[in-house]
Design brief:
This protein has 16 helices and 13 strands. The longest helix is centred in the last third of the chain and has 31 residues, at about 305-335. The protein is globular. The protein is α/β, with parallel strands linked by helices.
């Protein structure tokens, strides 16, 4: 007896994630390589894990005093406090005045899920979101699904091969009053002090609500404070804001999805009201956050020796990336590859743009079996002494073969999600 399925009219969803990794795995070429992993990678091709994390995991596994009861809806209190102090500094005005708080979220997008729900309900004057970042972000669809009108912009200028801080200033000028302004990837956008002042003055005048994304504190410059210094500007100017703080990548606990939605309010009373509403939304989203990631992070941040060891491991990663970029650029110079490659070393962080056009990227993927996103933004921790020659020689070949052809720079919406 046949029965009609209730799912009969459900079509395949448009894929948000690239099929690049799937294609790579199906490729049996001996020289194949994938340069678009989101995680930091070791020279052995494995996801990097901070040494302090490995030590703490063993301690947690052997601790008989731990119970595995559900965590509170807001998350582990000590975890949230430790993360706030990491983000702002223990003596920041928002910490001292008790007007910063947070809710433990699930996954890297959990903070945006929670924040979007809150803003949809309690920020109804404007349902417009502007996202400005160094790359195409994955949280645009989150706001769209909540009914927001979303506009996305990138700092990266593919023609000038640089991050353009004026994009941020120009977009905020054209943005309507009262909108939500999501800012990510600021590690590569070096605004001057005057530009910061101009940006904040415009945002204040237009009553624009900032929503920051801090996905990998410490992995941009190697300095935890420097990577989030811009937040202090907004704190000192008396801004209220949200901030997505992810602790997965900089600790190397990618599968734990540990993060926080940080709230900064004008005073403690307002903060408590916001947190109470966020708790209600959390009950509908995931009820209780997972424990392991929070325990690992808290154990490290609350132990001076472990925290110092963790900081040193971050510096080591960043220094290695800087060294690889220098070697990469030098090899292209020695090969006499056309064009300037200074933009590679001018970008901070583990992921940077190569500055290749569409044809060059396509050549690398199809002919050289080097898998990189269409926008040419690669993970430099994937490059090591064993593959750097093959990669640079292949790029030189791709540039020479396509020299003189019309550049096929990607439009904003063509950027692949990583």
């Amino acid at each position: 007896m046949s029965t009609l399925s209730v799912f009969l009219d459900v079509p395949h969803a448009q894929k948000l994630e690239s099929s690049l990794l799937k294609t790579y795995k199906q490729d049996d070429h001996t020289e194949r390589m994938f340069l678009a992993y989101r995680a930091c990678m070791t020279n052995e091709g494995q996801p990097w894990v901070a040494p302090a994390v490995q030590k703490v995991r063993l301690q947690i596994a052997q601790d008989p005093s731990l119970d595995y009861e559900y965590m509170p809806v807001t998350g582990m209190k000590s975890f949230i406090q430790a993360c706030l102090e990491l983000l702002f500094g223990k003596h920041s005005p928002v910490i001292v005045e008790n007007r910063a708080g947070g809710v433990h979220t699930v996954g890297e997008s959990g903070a945006f899920q929670l924040g979007a729900r809150f803003l949809k309900t309690w920020h109804q004057d404007s349902q417009i979101v502007y996202i400005v970042s160094s790359k195409k972000e994955q949280y645009g669809p989150i706001f769209q699904d909540m009914g927001f009108t979303v506009h996305e912009y990138s700092f990266w200028d593919p023609k000038q091969l640089c991050m353009d801080p004026n994009v941020l200033l120009d977009v905020v000028e054209q943005a309507p009053d009262g909108c939500v302004f999501v800012i990510g990837g600021l590690g590569n956008c070096n605004l001057t002090h005057q530009q910061w002042k101009k940006l904040m003055a415009t945002m204040k005048r237009k009553q624009i609500f900032p929503f920051f994304d801090i996905p990998n504190q410490g992995l941009s410059t190697g300095d935890l404070e420097e990577d989030t210094r811009f937040l202090q500007y907004f704190v000192l100017e008396g801004f209220e804001f949200f901030c997505s703080q992810s602790l997965s990548k900089n600790f190397g606990i990618y599968d734990e999805g540990a993060g926080i939605l940080v709230v900064v309010a004008l005073n403690n009373q307002l903060l408590l009201c916001v947190l109470s509403q966020l708790v209600n939304f959390t009950l509908a989203l995931w009820l209780n956050p997972p424990t392991m990631g929070a325990r690992i992070v808290t154990s490290i941040l609350c132990n001076p020796a472990l925290q110092e060891a963790w900081k040193e491991s971050l510096k080591e990663v960043v220094e290695n990336v800087m060294l690889i970029k220098e070697k990469f650029k030098e090899k292209l110079r020695l090969l006499r590859t056309p064009g300037s490659w200074d933009h590679i070393t001018q970008q901070n962080g583990t992921h940077s743009y190569l500055g290749l056009d569409f044809q060059q990227v396509e050549y690398l993927v199809k002919e050289k079996h080097i898998y990189i996103p269409k926008n040419g933004r690669i993970n430099f921790t994937c490059i090591n002494a064993c593959n750097i020659d093959y990669i640079t020689e292949s790029i030189n070949e791709a540039v020479l073969l396509t020299k003189g052809s019309e550049k096929c720079f990607q439009k904003e919406n063509d950027y692949e999600l990583e």
